[in-house]
Amino acid sequence: MKKNTLTFLLLLLQLFASAQKLDRKIDSLLSNVFADKNGPGGAFMVAKAGKPIYQKAFGKANLELNVNMNTSNLFQLGSITKQFTAIAILMLEEKDKLSVSDPISKFIPDYPNGNNITIHQLLNHTSGIKDFTKMKSIAQIAQQNLSPKELVGFFRDEPIDFKPGEKFEYNNSGYAVLGYIIELITQETYENFIQKNIFEKAGMSNSRYANDVAIIQNRAYGYQKKSSQYVNKTKISFSIPYASGALMSTLEDMLKWQNALNQNLFLKSNSVKKAFTKSKLNNGEVVNYGYGWHLLSINNIPTREHGGSIFGFKTMGVYFPNQDIYILGLSNCDCNSPTQVTRDIAKIVIENSKN
């Protein structure tokens, strides 16, 4: 009995020492990225088997009020929003409201070339539709409150960049169209659909559609760097990023999201698997993107990844499905991209898990 107790205690000590070593390595990386303790910062999390094993915040959530960042702050997610849009589409498919093989003309009859562009191609960025965020005229609408129909109308008549299915090219317009299709089918706003069918279902009580006017508790304020000075982020209307980039969340809620996906809370396993399956172009070339996730690898270990960028915020999430390890980085300045450091943390965590 005593021998078993001693063995158990030694194991606990080893685990504790390993956790401390991991913390020190991650701290060292992040302290370099967020070296300015009085500047904007970020919040980072590592979770294993659905539970956080590392959570820490750096820098300031609000520069003017000198408020420190904490791990409960809300951040704008930018393009991580696409994950939620993709899952919403698959939820509608499971209810026989649509099929990902449907042409978009089925829902938007007068969409140019709509007979040849499928929902699948919108989801995996192979539609060829012009990306409205790359259009010079976007400045004209950036602060306008547009309806989804008006937003889609802004780019729908632009010439296509390539034939549908011919190549992969990351595209925000496709996800704007997807948001519009969700609204046409459900007869409710994208915001309400996501709130009711995803956030509330997963218990994501601190997640929401972004809003610069509403009072939002624990909001991290967004900043940009001009020359050597920080400034408040450029204002935009959130009807513009819409279903491609307008959601907000926290570390805790994003872990609830990841766990809910793993537990098939929203979809049956064969449906959710579509989001994590690579597809092929017309010529047979493999696309390393599912629906709302890049399907890549780190140290030859498969990952599901996505970043986000919107005025004042940058985000990055990496998930190792086979190890059930999730790494998330959220930053409140677009001068501090968490993309590379989040992937660097992922490498450290994977190496540590082997020991």
TrEMBL record:
Top-rank taxon: Bacteria
Beta-lactamase-related domain residues are 30-336
- Keywords for this entry? Hydrolase, Signal
Signal peptide bounds: 1-19
InterPro entries named in the record: AmpC-like (IPR050491), Beta-lactam-related (IPR001466), Beta-lactam/transpept-like (IPR012338)
Q: What are the EC numbers?
A: 3.-.-.-
Identify the enzyme class. Answer: hydrolase
Q: Which GO terms describe its molecular function?
A: hydrolase activity
**This protein's name:** Serine hydrolase domain-containing protein
Provenance organism: Pedobacter ureilyticus
